[in-house]
C-alpha cells in the first residue's frame, strides 16, 4: 500500500472544527455549536487532543466498512478526519510496536452508543490481526461474547433500546505479532433489581423475551413454558420479532465460545425457573398466636411449584419451607418462624435476583475459561483493555444504583484528569519543553466524601447495615447528616443552609459531583446494600441436584448445611468499592485512550440535537475541563515530518521537496511565514503551536499557496494538453494532406490515361483509315490496270480486227463492232454515277426525316410540359421534405417517460402547425402506455401526488421537496406492533408517523405518534400507545398551513354531535405534513362527499376553546432559530419561529 498517496487530512474541508482544542474563542456555547454543526453533517466524531467525542447518530452511516478500516490502518491521528478507528489504530500500534499495554475507556450515559463503540473497537482490532485458523477461532470467541452478555445483561430502558445494565472491562491479550491469543472479562454491578421490577415503558433483560419468542416448541416444553400465558416479571406484549432472531444468534454464540449443549440447557433452565418463580403467590393466614403467617396460593391448581422443583431438582418441601419460613441460628440454637405474605414475596424476589446475578457471574467466568491465555504464552503477551461502563446518571428519583454508578464515574473522572495531565507532562519532558503548571478542578475531595474509610458515605452505609438494633433508611440519613453534614459537597435538609430548599426532600441527601448536583433518595439503601439471603434459601439451593445451582461448586456454596457460617457476607458497597479499586489500579498501569459518547436527544431521532441535554452531558463528562488542560500549554503539536509534508509549499526552499533535517525545514517555513516566535516552540521531534489562531493562519497561507500551485498546475496542464492536441491535429493534417494529394494525383492520372486512350483510339482510327484508303487506292489501281489491260486488249483485238478489216478492205462488220464497244463504256460510267448519287440522297433523306420528326415531336409536347411539369416536381419535392422531416423526428424521439420534455425542433415553416400536433400525439401515446403499465398501488400513489399538487403547488415552500418523497403511509411500522393490535381494534392505518402536539397552554412540544385510520385521527403516546386524543373523520372541518418550509399544521375540528367534550383545534408538527394532509383530504372527501378546506396563510385564527379567540402567527424563517420550529405564547397569540433550512420537526 502506497503510504504517500494523497488523503484527506483532518484540516481539509473541515465541518466546524475537527479538534475542539482548536476552537477560538473557547467557550461552552462554541463547543456545543461545533458539535451540533458536525452532527448535522453526519460528522459524529470530534477530537479533544487524542480523546474522541462520539455523538450517537441514531442511524446507520457508511463509515465502518472494510475499506474504511484499511484507510485508517497505520495512519497518524491527525492524518485523517476524526474517527473511532483512528483511536483504535493508535492504541493497537502503540501496543504492537512499543510494547505498551493499552486501555480504551468508553464512557457516556445510557443511549449514547457505548456498546456500539466497543463493538467497533473490537471489529477494528480483529481486522488488524492475521487470518490463520487459530487466530480466527480466538477472534470469533472474543466477538461472540458480546451477544451472550448483551442478552443476559442488557435491557430496554426509556433512554435506550439496548442499554447495558452492567459494567464490563475486557482485557484482550496479544502475542508479539499483534494477534489476539485470549482475553479476560470483568463485570461490575449488574442491575439485578430489574429482574423483579422495572419502570413503565421499559423491559426486563433481553434473554427472557428471546426464549419465549425464539425457542422451539420442544424447548419450551422442556423449559415448562409452553402453556404459560402471563408472567409476573415480564409482559409478553413487550416482545418484538427481533427477539427470535437474537435468540438464534445467542445459541450460535454459545456454540462458538465452546459451551456444551448440556451447559446451555442448564443456563436456560435457570432463566425459565426465575420466570416461573415470579408467578408464585402467597396468601396471608392468621396463626393461633396472632402472628401473620402465609401459605402458597392454590398449589394444587397451579403447578408452578411442582414445575420449578422439577426444573431445579429441589424437593417441594424444601422449596416451600425456604420461601415461607426463616431459620435464625444464634449460639448453636435455631429458631424457625413463618413469614408473612409480604415477607415471603420479598423472600421470593430476593431468591430470583440472586439466582440471576450469580448466573450472570457464572457466565462471565465460563466465557473467561474459554478465552483465557495459556500459561506458556502469558509472559509474552501485551494487553489492550476495553472498558464499557455505565455513564453518569441523573434521574427524577435517584437511588442506590445511581449512587454507586456516579461513584464509579467520579473515580473514572479522577483517573482521567490524572492520566491526561501525566500524559501531557510526559510528552513535554520527552520533547524538552518546559512544563507549565495547569490549574484544574480535582475531584479527589468528592471521592473522599464517598469512600473515606472512617467518615465516607460507603463506610457509614456499611456500619449502619452491620449495626444491631432497629436499622432503617431514616437512621442512615441521620447518621450521614451528622458525619458528613459539614462537608462542602454534601447537602441535606437538616443543614440550616438548605432548610428552605423545597427541591431537596426530607428523605434524601444531595452530593455536588464534578458533573453537577444529584439528589439521592435513601429509600431501600439498607436493603440493597445487604448482599445476603436467608439461610433457608441458600440451603435449599445448595441441596439442589441441578448441575449449576447445587453443590459446593454451584451458585450457592455458602448454603452447605454441614458448615456454620456466622460471618456475614460483604455488602454490595464493599464489593463494588473493592472492584473499583482493582479497576483503577489496572487502568493506572496502562496507557489510556478515551472515547466519550454523547446522546444528542431523548427521542432517539437522527435529526434532533437537544442543546440542553448535550450541555448537561458535556459538563458531567468534563469535556471542557479536558479541552482546557490540553490548551493550557500548547494547543497543537505535530511531527516535523508531517508539518513539512503539509506546509512545504509555503517556502521556496522546501518546495517541492526538502532533503535536509525535518526540523530545519520547519524553521524555514516559519521564517518565511513570519510567525511570531512566541507562538511556537521547537521540540525534539515535534513543533508545538501555542494558539489555534496561529494554526489557522498557517492554513490560510496554505490554502492561498495551494490556489497558486493549482493555477500553475492548471496552466502547465492546459499548455501540455493543447500542445498534445496540436500534435494530434498536425499529424491529422499531414495524413489528410497526403490523402488529398494522392486522390488528386489519382484523378490526374485517370484523366491522362483517359486522354491517352482517346488519342490512341484516334491515332489507331487514323491509321486504319489510312490503311483502308491505301487499300481502296490499290484496288482502284488494280481495277484501272485491269480495265486498261482489257482496253488495250480490246484495242489490240480492234486493231487486229481493223487490220483484218483493212485487210478485208474495210468490211462493214468491223465498223459495227467498234461502234458498240465505245457505247458500252459510256453507259457503264453513267450507271455508276447514278448509283452513288442515289445512295447519298437516301442517307440525306433519312437524316433530314429524323431531325424533322424530333423537331415536330418536341414542338408538339412542349405545351404539355410547360403546363404540368412544375406541379409534379413541386409535389415530389414536398413529399421528399416530409419524408426527411418524419425520418429525423423518428430518429430523435425522446424516452418513453411521460416527464421527459425533450422534443426535436422543426426548421420547415410549412410543418410548424404539424410539429406540436405530433408532439401531443406522441405524449398521449406514451402516457397511455405508461398508464397501462401501472399497478393499482402505483395508480393510487400518483393520484395522491396529483391531489397534493392541487392542494399545495405554488402555495407552500415545502411542497417541491415532498415531490421526491414516496407516500409511505405507516412510517413507524405501527401495523406490526403488538400493542397496536391490542389498542387499534382492527382499524386500518392510513398514515402513522412520529410528531409533536403543541400544548395549548404554554406552546411546548409534546412527542407523540400521529395516526390516521379509516375513521379517525389519533394521537398516541410513543411508548405505551395510550390514546391521548381522537378526532373522527366527519368532525374534521379543515387544515391550515404556513407558506414556509415547516411541518406545522393546524387541524380544525367541529364539535362532535354525540359528545359535549370538545377541546378545539389541534396544532401539530410532523415531518410528512404534506402526505398527512393529502391522505386526510382524500379520506374526508370519500367519507363525507365534501372537499376538505385547506388554508395556506401566514396568520390565521385557531379555536382552542379559550376565553378569548387565539391567533397563530408565523414569522419569517430566521438563522437565529436552530434545529426546528419554536412556539411561544404571547397573550392571545402563538408566535412560531422557523429555521432557515427547514429541518425536520424537533422538540
Automatic annotation (TrEMBL):
Gene3D superfamilies reported for this sequence: 1.10.10.820, 1.20.5.4820, 1.20.58.530, Kinesin motor domain, Myosin VI head, motor domain, U50 subdomain
Sequence ranges assigned to domain TH1 in this UniProt record: 956-1140
Keywords: Actin-binding, ATP-binding, Motor protein, Myosin, Nucleotide-binding, Repeat
The keyword ATP-binding appears for this protein: yes
GO molecular function annotation: actin filament binding; ATP binding; microfilament motor activity
SUPFAM superfamilies per record: P-loop containing nucleoside triphosphate hydrolases
Pfam families found in the cross-reference section: IQ (PF00612), Myosin_head (PF00063), Myosin_TH1 (PF06017)
Protein name as catalogued: Myosin motor domain-containing protein
Record organism: Ciona intestinalis (Transparent sea squirt)
Source organism phylogeny: Eukaryota, Metazoa, Chordata, Tunicata, Ascidiacea
